Amino acid sequence: MHEHSTSIEAYAEAPHLLAEMTWMTDQVATHASGMRLSREFWLRKAALLDRLAIREAEEEGIPEVVAEAGTLAARAAHRLAQYDRERGGGPFATSNGPIPPDSPLWDPSYRPYVRQEYAAWRRMIAA
Q: Residue 34's pLDDT is what?
């Protein structure tokens, strides 16, 4: 239940799922081939897939769909953590939450890391 409560807190002010999908599609469409997508893109993608996986699990739908949604969310979360680990700590670090991406607390899933980072990002853009 703790995971669910942290997701509610992290995504309380999140845009509607369709709005996030539209934003992501626009980001991909506007980037020329070979250009790197921003951390914001990877963060919002991971958060979107996490939210969709949570929704699938709550609706107790088809087990294969629930499992696939969880797998996609876990992959996107891993990608975000990898992005942040590659940039390291210090003044050029990209992570914003209190627990760094290389912490053993994120084992076996980085999905809680995504929630931490998404909540920190939302607080930054609201300030």
A: 58
